[in-house]
Amino acid sequence: MTAIQRQRVVWTGFPGGPGLSTFYFADAAASQGDLHAFLTAVSGSLPNDVTLTIQPGGDVIEDTTGALTAVWAGTFQAPITPAGSVIGYAAPVGMLHRWETLTIRAGSRLRGRTYLVPVRSDAYQDDGTILSAVLAGQVGAASTFVGAVTPNLLVWQRPRSASAAYVDGHGKSHKALSSRPGSSAVVVTSSMPDKVVVLRSRRD
Questions:
Q1: Is residue 100 part of a domain?
Q2: Alpha carbons 59 and 147: distance in angstroms, whole number
Q3: How high is the pLDDT of residue 202?
Q4: Cis omega (within 30 of 0) on the bond before 18?
Q5: What is the domain range of residue 144?
């Protein structure tokens, strides 16, 4: 059992908002400055009507059960608003940062993700992938962030309740699942795929 601290970042100012990005830390307050620096560094790819607000505190979670056990308090961080000219964008699409760990659970590597959505249209190449210079800048900012906060930044795998096999309303079969406790693991590196992603939920 490990107590982990949840840090939320609220996205506002764009169609389909507000949005929410969630990070997990062993000590969130200690890394708020580094998180602010990371989000500032990557915000150059965001439309200038987007504002990112790092919440000054949050919840403490017991990782195996997901139970809230306490709260933590940090310090105020200035809202982040991208600078630059007005550029068009599509509200539900953008880029994806992956947070990699060395932990294997049930045959899969435990990893986290943070969506950067929406992204300015000038961040894309003609073939629909990410502009090379933009990709390099994003990868570099994430690498610097991980280097600054490791081993404080965590990925949390939520606990799972057992469920019976069933067929949904579309006729698709779903297999039975066994229960599984939650767990957390230290982020050791990061990556970003060279492709555009679609965000279906504003709470990722």
A1: yes
A2: 24
A3: 53
A4: yes
A5: 3-198
Q: Would you say residue 204 lies in a domain? A: no
Q: pLDDT of 171-180, one tens digit each?
A: 999 888 888 8
| Positive or negative: CA dihedral 30, 148, 33, 14 | negative
Q: Quick one: average pLDDT of 67-78?
A: 96
* Domain-embedded: residue 203: no
User: How many structural domains is the chain composed of?
Assistant: 1
**What pLDDT digit, counting tens, does each position of 116-162 carry?**
999 999 999 999 899 999 999 999 999 999 999 999 999 999 888 88
